[in-house]
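Standup, Tuesday
Yesterday: got the pipeline producing structure tokens again.
Today: sanity-check two examples.
Blockers: none.

Example 1:
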Amino acid sequence: HPPQDVKPGNILVSGAGTVKLTDFGISAIREASGTSQLAYSIHYTAPEIFGGTSDPDAELIIDPRDERSDLYSLAASLYTLGVGRPPFQAPTHVALMRQILLDPVPPTGIPALDGFFTRALAKEPPERPLTAADLTADLLQLRHAVAHLGASTGPWPSGPTLGGHDAT
């Protein structure tokens, strides 16, 4: 089963730079109980988890599809870590779900980042990277593009600075 709750609070980085995903307990409890309670952090949940995007009036369902749902969550987490806020924000869960289902990804102001996040946070899974290896390849291309802007691509001890923009 996929992790299902990828979010910044579940991503740990060791002093040596090793990244680990943690805290899959909520997803495991949901599956073991057989309930259909929302076991996700809404800000980082892929649109298809809410029932897809082709019918915005569709009934909300919990239906994890494949790895691309987790890759969406990872990309939303990277957006949050790089920009300093989740890609979508709203005062209610319903409004937030509508944004995730319908609204374009808010631009960061940095074209290379915007291209990466537009693809990685696409509403439809086929428009996103298919596998973690594909997302990694996109991140390596992004790193190369960001390095050409003169930004650091190493550790961010006080928050990222991309092309003169403070992204935190």
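Example 2:
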Amino acid sequence: DTVLYRNVALAVTDVMPYAFYKNDVVSTLTFNNKGSIGTSAFEECVSLSSVNIPQEITSIGDHAFKGCKELATARIEDRTTVLPLGKKLFDATALQDLYIGAKINYINEVSRDASPFCENTTLKNVVITDVEDHIYDYEFYNCSALEKVTVGDGVEGIGKWAFSGCSSLSEFVFGSNVSVIGEEAFS
């Protein structure tokens, strides 16, 4: 929440775009700031192994964690506020476990290329809590290693092609309120 610069404590609000781009030393992150994470802020931080997004983070820009080759776990902490996410957040990572404890929305238009999670070929387990009320079109499109998904009771709809191409999917736990499943959601 603060950074010391020339013996002056400065409050941290936003992590600006490209702030730690290609930093090969950062291995863990603890966010204490109340602000956003900018576009490509941690892109290609090759030593980063996990990330925990607390409720104080207000948005995450495009490609924020792209190319973090050791990043295996991502957790969006439980919150009641909406968290806007940019596209391809975890592209070219080793992401295996994802926990979504928030209602998310896309910063960009809803499309296959706008999804923060689609086409991740290492993602294996996803937990979506009761806070979320729907899964977007293409949200996990072509996550070919995805094996297990648990959806909370708050989710009422699953979008078109949301899990299309998830050829390893062997266990899917539906919440009790799912009433709409979009076109080719599981093709």
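Quick observation on example 2: The mean pLDDT is 93. The CA atoms of residues 14 and 145 lie 33 Å apart.
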